[in-house]
Amino acid sequence: MSSRRPISKLVGTAAAMSAAAAAYALILRPRHLRWGATEAETLRPLPGDDLVLAPRVNATHAVTIQARSSNIWPWLAQIGQGRGGFYSYTWIERMIGADIENTDRILPEYQELKAGDTIPFFEGVGPPVALIEPGRYLVLGGKIDAQSEGPFALKGAGPEAYMAMSWLFYLEPAGEKTTRLIERFRLDWNQSWQNAVYMHGFLEPGAFVMERKMLLGIKQRAEDTEESM
User: Fold this and answer.
1) Which residue among 17, 142, 150, 196 is buried most deeply as judged by most CB within 10 Å?
2) Which of 204, 212, 210, 218 is nearest to 94 (CA)?
3) Quick count: other Cβ atoms within 10 Å of Cβ 19?
4) Are 131 and 63 part of one and the same domain?
5) Model confidence, pTM
């Protein structure tokens, strides 16, 4: 009897983990991959899609903001560590080593954003601005591999390693003082079971938690700006 109990407990644990994984894959994941977005918004082509043609992660989120796009854009233009922050959970960001402070005001010194500029996630490390139309959209990302250099590089990775990312913020006017902010995150990488576990099991749900908070943080700040005018 005693020898069977550990086996029975192991089988029960494995069954519970399998059930949890199935529930996440079938119920939770489809919802968080399109949180706040309409079906049309998830299906429409948007700037930056061609940077990651076959994404392993493809998430589209959206929020309605009671503000004009001109009062939302400045909050997007200044994102980044050492800049305006990401308007998300700073305690989580600091837990992973990012020393980020979120601002509640527009910072004029960070409004002149252009293609090629780095948006730091950590000190001196982050993706470049890949595409930008001020007042309309901002796309961060591109493709990197083991030979890449600069602040957005795979340091110490194997020769087969690569990652392609696009992170879009798109402003769609929806009325005189109403805007849809559509955020899209697409990601591809060299396949391995380790990468699959990390990306799908940790990065993907973790990114959603932070991105949702970020969208709501931008919404609050932009609506406060609108009301003050």
Assistant:
1) 142
2) 210
3) 10
4) yes
5) 0.85
Distance CA(117)–CA(140), nearest Å, equals: 9
Q: Determine the Cα–Cα distance for residues 135 and 69; give it in Å rounded to an integer.
A: 7
- Residue range 42-84, pLDDT digits in tens: 999 999 999 999 999 999 999 999 999 999 999 999 999 999 9
Strand partners, 96: none
Distance CA 51, CA 67 (A): 30
Tokens of 50: 């061609």
**Domains of the chain: total:** 2
Check whether residue 55 and residue 168 sit in a common domain: yes
How many beta carbons lie within 10 A of that of residue 166, not counting itself? Answer: 26
CA atoms within 13 A on the CB side of 18: 6
71 DSSP 8-state letter: G
Beta pairing partners, 62: 182
List pLDDT tens digits, range 112-154.
999 999 999 988 788 999 999 999 999 999 887 756 666 565 6
Query: From CA 149, how far away is CA 79, in angstroms rounded?
Result: 23
**Which ranges of 47-106 does DSSP label H, i.e. alpha helix?**
73-77, 90-95
Q: Give the domain range for residue 176.
A: 37-228
Residue 81: what are its φ and ψ, rounded to 5°?
A: -65, 140
Longest dimension (CA), the chain: 75
Give me the CATH number covering residue 95.
3.30.530.20
